[in-house]
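Let's do one together. I've listed all components of the complex below, 683 residues spread over three lines.
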Amino acid sequence: MMISDIESDLKSKFPDSLLNVVSEDRRISLLVKKEELHQILSQLKDIGFNHFSDVTAVDYIADKEFELIYHLWSHREKIRAIVKVRIPREAPTVKSVFDLWTGAQIHEREDHELFGINFEGNPNLSPLFLEDWEEIPPFRKDFDTRKYVKEKYYSGEEGYPVAKG
Amino acid sequence: MKKLTPKVIKSKNEARAWSVWVINYFTACGFMELLPWVGSGYDMERFGILAVPTPRHADVFIIAGYVTRKAAKRIKMIYDQMASPKYVLALGSCPMTGGMYWDSYATIKRVDEIIPVDLWIEGCPPKPENIGHGIVMAANAIKGGLEGH
Amino acid sequence: MDIEEKEIAFLTVPFGPQHPASGHFHALMKVDGETVLELEPHPGYLHRGFEKLMEYRIHPQNCVLADRLDILDPFPCELGYVNAVEKIAGLEVPKRGRYIRIIMTELGRILSHITWIGVLSMVLGFDSANKIAWGDREKIIRLNEMATGGRIYPCYLCVGGARRDISQEFVDETSKALDYLEGQLSFYDYFVFKNETFVMRMEKVGRMTAEEAIDLGATGPNLRACGVDYDVRKDEPYEVYPEVEFNVITREEGDAYARSLCRRGEIAESISIVRQLLNNLPDGAFRIELSPVWAAPEGECYFCLEAARGEKCFHMVSDGSPFPYRVKVRPPSLSHSLVQFPYLVKGNTIADVPAIYWSLDPGPADVDR
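Okay, and this is what the predicted structure of the assembly comes out as:
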């Protein structure tokens, strides 16, 4: 199957949701609207994208949005698909893709803990890496890790940090 | 033929120094330079050092590398379970001052905050020769009567 | 006679953070006698928040930090970072620099697999193989030290090439070390891989079919042992891999023994790749000189490579400043130890748990980053 076939197939099934499609040698990149995200990913899985690599989040604090990026790979055709979607920063909620790929559950759990994004339908969103964490999710851009560490562990002054203890 | 005289251990301190048992705890990235000591590269067993699986049998606790907040509670638990006299060695620059991850929100910066430390070995990670020097220094100190806690 | 019905509670056994057979990894097992019913993994004892730390450092500092992403296999981490930055900027690394990078990366793959043989033998109780394997590691670590100055964390690659050139002495020593390792490989075949006890403990244990492996997100030797030939070096070639010849080792059974044989085959292939590269090493420049505060232009890149454990991907977003805006590392071991391990352990005995765990070759530091 050629990349142009995938492109035309998706454009015919989801004419309103595809905002931008970029096709390269063995990669296809889509920017989609949030509403039909799960259907687009389901369609990609049916075409043959059976390997779920990763779901990443980028915090665009100036635009007040998170960008979620799904990376998929097809073992049969050896093509990579990248699906991007923007969600609002104040209410970050998407539908989980755990029902399509079992391996997606752990990546969504990590993004939930580190960014605070809610994935509806994920069976287990309990904390993965951090225990008793009371601040905001640490990978957000408004969490300054140097300021946090200087106040908690060092003496709090500017300049060369001297550890407490 | 030369007459072989057996080595006589004269004091309990000397006995302790030649059979230091280390708890088998693969802490963090500083531990990678302890692998040659466990294996046949530098072989610590010829110094009488064994890695034991349970804290009840161990004399020395080697903290090799950074300590996260989640692991700090468990380290305190293991330290409490060890029988006296016990000694603690801190390896690397991360337990000393925070090291390379000084601005990480998840690591503690001085392992001194949770358990008392007897010997600090610097490096990132320290070379095996450095670690050997440190271990021999600790064994000599134990032989000389260093009080464990 | 009336028999009272009592509630049976199952024992919860921790495969704890302090355990000779786990790295710094914690799992709670619910057992019924000797059979494991369920396993719940609890990672996070090695979490440092790398991706956040990298946003505060310029590119040369990040190359030093990236080493520690996977402490058993540092070269692919550095390679991924610098390649992602170079693709955003459109830099063309000189040919000698590319060759040096892949020579060191393949030596790192051999190092990781030999360390894995040692660790697997240790948890199975096979102390002799453990001591011998960890003694053989020294050969490659000494080569690392000769070329880069650092034994385990080399800090060798930089944006634009490699930091230092390799000398003729390094080329000669590497050839000698590869000859020694090839002899050791036939020794390991007889001592470990065809050892009756090893085969009994690993064969038919922890079996996965190809569909299950793909659904769980397996990559690397774990997937190739089920019959799927996915190797990023062949499917999405990068650096100099189009110019070398090597085979992709696959097997059909999908059990722990098949995974072990895949890794053993990869050691032989890596030795052959390094020999080919050393024979055809070109002359010329090995790096592009850039200032330390050089900034990549605005852009985004997703770069995938094949680490010793599987598919490792770097997603980098740059906003035109010397600091990266977002770096995301997709660790191969996240799926190995948190998804495949609980799935495969169900129904097996407690004695099989370390054999299954280390046959998947997870890196605890890789999971937590």
